[in-house]
Amino acid sequence: MAFQPRRRFTRRKGCRFCIDKIKIDYKDTRSLRYFVSERGKIVPRRISGNCSEHQRKVTEAIKRARNIALLPFTAGHSLDR
Amino acid sequence: MRTYETIIIIHPDVTGDDYTGVVDKFKGILGELGANMLAVEEWGTRKLAYTVQKQERGAYVLFAYEGKSDSIRELERRMRIDDKVIKFMTVQLDGGYEPSGFARKGEETEAAASEAGEVRKEAAVAEEKPADEPAAEDAAPAEEEEQSA
Asked: pTM of the entire structure?
């Protein structure tokens, strides 16, 4: 498997939250951005590598952040164009 | 009594005395409702992820307090009435309030210099892209480890 295509997301063994013991907070958009695709979708667990507990918390946090306009629901109405 | 935090977005055109007036008003309402204020964080004007009431930016204020659920209902009712508050959200805090520091000073000052709006948009675009690249860089060493293992 020498010529594996470059993976888009880090594939770490285990859940990064379990290892680093970071709290998941909807206000911390900088770290949540990592779990959101460019389109604004939530990155699935098989790609993010989160454990079920932390994926649930991340999802919850992303949804809260979206609700208060910290994160986008979609990239469609982006202001850059 | 439970710990809650309410985050509100104030209309960007509300500045100066009007702005502090709004913040004080809701502080007052919370006091009136018998809530025990823990903290008020003012994040300053930030760009919103999507337009809210046709506004692209807004001033975030976060109130953390201990109060009763009835007082939330009353607080939110009054927020709905106030036109200066364009969005709000209340969240129950399980672990109690901890100062977050997510209102980073850098972003605030950046947002304050909003006259350079165009520059900021570009900066935002630039910000989004590196967000992917570090991931790719991270991925590369990880793959090497896998291969060596």
From this structure: 0.69
